[in-house]
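Office hours follow-up: a student asked to see two folded examples consecutively, so here they are.
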Amino acid sequence: MNHKQKHLLVIFPHPDDESFGASGTISKFRDEGVPVTYLCGTLGEMGRNMGSPVFANRETLYNFRKKELNQAARNLDINVELLGYRDKTLEFEPSEELAKHLKDRIELHKATTIITHYPGYGVHPDHDALGRAVVKAVEMIEPGFRPEVWMHAISNDSEKDLGEPDFIFDITPYWERKEAAIRAHLSQADGMMNLIEEQDQASEHYQRLKTEQFYRWIFPTD
């Protein structure tokens, strides 16, 4: 399959999930000429961080996060589509309706690869709920036309339970773009940027930040 036929969909629930979790891999795809669209589930309006120093409040946070997401998307050269759900409520959405909504978007974009959260290993209920919905959505697609689904597992026990990831990318060549994408999320990025800036660049933790890894979801009929 040539690159003009490929399309990567990133499906996460919050503005900044794409930057923290997959922006190096996204940059790799973009350098290979593959179009990337981020389907963002919510505007993260219930996030706890309001900037440092504080510049947002509960009523205005969603507006800042939308602008931050658009800037991060420009930094990564990707398209963004908002799915329109409310932060911290995805686990309560009717699962069939959510999956059908995603299936329609997946088919519309003719996605060949999807990146989402691994259900049960996403740490946040929204992460797990949207990951489950992606699985259900792809199950609705006829075998042979399904995109590959790559799962981002965040929890500390993921490798112990799931084994070694199927895809491990050294994203060092794309580090500047990843850092710029993270910094674009001004209201949320302060803690991560402090962590990055305080790390010895030779440390194991810092080097882990320059690796992105994913599990390939295996469907029973694959």
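And the second, which I mentioned at the end of office hours:
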Amino acid sequence: MSDTSATNGIQARYQAELDRGKFLIQQCNSCARHIYFPREICPHCGSDQLALVAPSGLGTVHAVTTVRRKADLGGDYNVSLIDLDEGVRLMSRVDNRAPLDVKIDQRVKARVHMTPAGALVVFDVVEGGAA
């Protein structure tokens, strides 16, 4: 991979938008399906006509596990698979609940979390919380 593709490819564009506080996913202009993780070619129809679009950010916890860590290393956290309403699934975490309080079928909303290493997408349980 050349330096140009590393700095101008879809992953770099996705991360640049995320670092500006904008969570985007792709949508294929040919088959209209949404795509996540960013790709150069639509995995559904093979088109290269993909656009970055803003999702609703709403989704449902599909699966969750708690990762155990000592308190001095940051304590326990959850790793969750989230199904966005647009039909894509991503791995993230739910931040506004204790790890053991994150449950399958809870409704969540995405937000961009800034870290020293760069921005990432995390989720918060929305009021009313179950699908």
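Two things to take away from it. Residues 56-131 form a domain with the OB fold (Dihydrolipoamide Acetyltransferase, E2P) fold (CATH 2.40.50). The radius of gyration is 16 Å.
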